Amino acid sequence: MRASQQSVSLAQGMWRGFRMRCPRCGQGALFRRFLKVADHCPNCDEELFHHCADDFPAYLVIAAVGHVIVPAILVVETAYAPALWLQLFIWLPITTLSALALLQPTKGAIVGLQWQLGMHGFDASKRRRLVPSQSRISCDDLAVG
Predict the structure, then answer these.
(1) Other C-beta atoms within 10 Å of 106: how many?
(2) pLDDT digits (tens, 9 = 90+) for 37-60
(3) For position 121, what pLDDT does the model report?
């Protein structure tokens, strides 16, 4: 069985997407630009244009970054009480860079999730993955003894 024909678990598909790779083969680039998903994988030719991530990756990134940054801000404010301009100078770039760094991998994970579950237009791809490969039987295979 070739690597591209092996079944891909949900976690593996999402991890490949998070790494910005094709959820099917794990080799081809998932994105053609920062947040533009490629139409198909350059390695295995899997169609990727079916995705419909919308704003969900951004919501996840906001929640994740917010849950890390806000407690850090509160700890620094409580312990040191720096000036407001210093707080803005420190926390705005950290928040912005963290959000931008997580946005593309999070969108990739959502595309991997949709691909593996067969959501939106990926249902045909999922049906192809679920059908066992039909191997051809030759006359020699049927011969006895």
Answers:
(1) 21
(2) 999 999 999 999 989 999 999 999
(3) 82
pLDDT value of position 133: 53
Residue 61 lies in a domain: yes
Residue 139 lies in a domain: no
Which tokens in the block code for residue 70? 């806000």
| Residue 135 belongs to a domain | no
**CA dihedral angle for residue 23, residue 21, residue 108, residue 51, rounded to 10 degrees:** -50
The whole domain housing 109 covers 3-130
User: How many angstroms separate the Cα of 45 from the Cα of each of 5, 40, 49?
Assistant: 13, 5, 11
Res 120: pLDDT? 79
Tally of domains in the chain: 1
